[in-house]
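User: I'm putting together notes for a lab meeting next week and I want to include a structural view of one of the chains we've been expressing. I don't have a solved structure, so I'd like a prediction I can at least talk through. The sequence is below, exactly as it appears in our construct file.
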Amino acid sequence: MAALGWLTPRRSSATARSVLAGEAAAEAARKSSQAYEVLDAAKDGRAHAAEPAFPVAGDDRAAAFFDLDNTVMQGAAIFHFGRGLYKRKFFQRRELARFAWQQTWFRLAGVEDPEHMQDVRESALSIVKGHRVSELMSIGEEIYDEYMADRIWPGTRALAQAHLDAGQKVWLVTAAPVETATIIARRLGLTGALGTVAESVDGVYTGKLVGEPLHGPAKAEAVRALAAAECLDLGRCAAYSDSHNDIPMLSLVGHPYAINPDTKLRKHARALDWRLRDYRTGRKAAKVGIPAAAGVGALAGGTAAAVALHRRRR
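Assistant: Thanks for the context. Below is the predicted structure for the 314-residue chain, given as structure tokens.
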């Protein structure tokens, strides 16, 4: 599972690297979805949620695209994955603390620092370089059960289920590694996932990315590419996110939703009369919409984990 620092934007508009990242994510998502098609057909018993007026049942040219961090899941999936790798001794405690701080810094700053972004990507990719893709996929399944399963927002899960019940495909769209995103999508019964694609040769990670992290404009390019491949009408599709960084993706579809929105997205959504949903507990989160919530939570979680392990060793 590649890069542990991918929650970072590159540019305000799509670039050639954004397009490459988006197209690579779309191709990986379609392949993983097709590979599990037979298995999906054999499974049933999904929990049914009350179906809202939207989505429209039977509209097979519509689909839904869900951001992952703080939209579907509380906190950052990539940090939870990092905790699992730390537990399995993939890296040291100081690297966990450094990673947590990098995530918190970006969430708090909300701006791009090229040197910082480059440092995040290089340090993260070095952790998985030389490991087999199959190894990280297997570990990812375990980590989902350990750290992620209990962090799914029930409200957002119900929205995704409504699309599934209407006969529509539902995709996660995230800067997290596509392998991690695919595991989460599978566990939630979704169609598949668009995520950052790390280069591998003969099933082994090289420590490089294909294009750039699937963030901001790259997400929009991935959705556009997948919609074209799936013959979807974006005007009939829906997209869900908590972050203003995903405005390019939200603006592509006819039904954008702001879920647990940060301050900038909340303001933008209200100005354009987009639908809003807030599943966070407490009036402070609902009113302020602090974009640093995931980063602060990650730092606190990482610190707690490191302290607990240190105490056990002593």
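A couple of points you could mention at the meeting. The chain has a mean pLDDT of 77. The two ends are 31 Å apart (CA to CA).

User: Perfect, that's what I needed.
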